[in-house]
Amino acid sequence: MARISNGLIGFLNIIILLFSFVVIGVGAYFSLQSSADCERFLQWPVIIIGIFLLVVSLFGILGSCCRISFFLWIYLFAMFLLILAMLFSTVFVFIVTNKGVGDVISGRGYKEYRLGDYSSWLQKEVGNYKTWSKIESCLRTAKVCHGFTAKELASANEFYKKNLSPTQSGCCKPPTY
Questions:
Q1: Which of 33, 40, 65, 110 is the most buried (most CB within 10 A)?
Q2: What residue intervals traverse the membrane (predicted)?
Q3: Model confidence over 86-101: pLDDT tens digits?
């Protein structure tokens, strides 16, 4: 049974090792080709995550295939930290975004979102001009508000009937009030 579990850990970590090379490559691509603020913002976190995955997978491979228990303990601790980080980031996202926001408006294909509906931390960050200019640059680069036809933009009724995503509703149109 120990051979099967060690072999499985080794196999999974070889896949993670290959994936870490892809992640590091994406981070390097961001650093070489980035023109937008959001891509420059992502380059170092992506590279760091890729290096972390590389090191952890190496510990897993060495620990399982070479039967070095010290490396398996390091691997176990790193996996525990990874699970904790995922848990905290999930809780953070739920607290900051508060899924229940948005007022339904009759005759509209979207909900009306206001900055006051979100957490005070997010309000402060988005309300800051420097931060908002970076967010706006990312939205423009990602073409979030791109794709509206001339007919939809010419007639307010046609625009309001359009089924907008929460990002488009909050960023691409003037407030309904």
A1: 110
A2: 7-30, 42-63, 70-96
A3: 999 888 887 776 655 5
Contact 148, 136 (CB under 8 A): no
Q: Residue 170: pLDDT above 70?
A: no
The CA–CA distances, whole Å, from 27 to 16, 40, 53, 56, 97 equal 16, 9, 13, 18, 27
φ, ψ dihedrals at 66, nearest 5°: -95, 0
Q: What is the mean pLDDT of residues 121-131?
A: 75
Examine the pLDDT at 119 and tell me if it is beyond 90. Answer: no
**Residue 24 · residue 51 · CB < 8 Å:** yes
Q: What is the pLDDT of residue 65?
A: 85
